[in-house]
Structure formats: C-alpha cells, structure tokens
# Entry
Amino acid sequence: MSTASDYVIVGAGPTGCALGFYLARRGATVTLVESVERPESVVGESMLPGSTLVFDECGLDLSGFMVKRGAVFCRDGAAVRFDFAEAEACRYPHAWQVQREVFDLRWRDVARRAGCAIVYADATAVDVAARRLDTSAGPLTAASATPASRTPPSAPAARAWFNWRPTSPATSPSAASPAAGSGSSPSAAASPRSAW
# Structure
C-alpha cells in the first residue's frame, strides 16, 4: 500500500479525527495513521461544555453517554458544587461523561464520513526529503504532517520528523491554522502544502 495525501496525521483519537474532519471539510485529502484498530478500554473521560461546539460541528454521536450537569470540587473536607447552567454567558448547560473506547470509535466514524482515510499501522521510518512516512502497512506521502497524540510515534525517526511535543491548546493546529509539521509553527503554515 502506498498513499499520497495533502496531510498525514499520526493519531486517530479525538484530536486527530477532529483535525482530519476540519481539513477534509476545507477540501484537503487526509490520511490518519493509528497503531490500534480497536481502542482498549480505559478510564472514562469527563468532557466540558465548551467541547459541545466542536461535537456539534463535526456531527459526533453522543447518544448513550451520561449527561454531566456540573462538578463538585473537594478540598480539606469542604465541597463546592459548580452547575454548568449557572456559568456566566452559558451557551451549553451540560457536558458528557464518555467511555473512551466508544468515544474514539465514534470520532473515527466522523473522520471517515468527512472523507479521511485511516491506516492502522506503526510508523517505522521517515524520509523528510521525500516527504514520506514509512509504516508497517507501507509508505505514506503528504505535503504536510502532524502528530495528534499525547504520546510520541513509536519509531524514533518519526519523533524526530514531527519534532514531537505533546498536543496542547498553545501548540496544536486549529481549523484556522491547519498545517503544523516538522520545524514549523502553526502560524507559519498557512496552506495545505506548506510544511515539511
């Protein structure tokens, strides 16, 4: 298998799939690379109301997840309750508690419906000059690449290629500035073919 895309995103979790959705919606071809076909059962995730905007835009199916209307913060024997509906300028009065293995699979459905390809493989080597990521399923080429995972790609070469660092709001690409790749900052990559 050999695939050429505008973007290769390493990691098909919620971040990678949402990024893939937004890029594909703008007309880019996107390949997501994920080492695990079926996410393992891990602890649930507690979403916040602000995530609802992205969930709605992407058409994420949240049926069956527990609705969460607030939080309780405990410290030194005291507890403070926070109701999301009482927040200033409340746009979304609740959030969800999700099962990650189900949540991740639903995000992959979102990415596929947007036109993203998902390749289940491990990164094995990188050829920066050729803009190629070698995987256990075959080579992938792209104009731009980015990691979308809190853990680095498994191959040391892939970590170097992506100049890997954990995804965070300050460093992750966004729909407004979609291309982040090796050696570039999100603001430096303005077009789908700019970063490598």
Notes: Confidence is low (pLDDT under 50) at residues 164-196. The helical segments are 14-25, 52-58, 100-114, 156-161. Residues 45-98 form one domain.
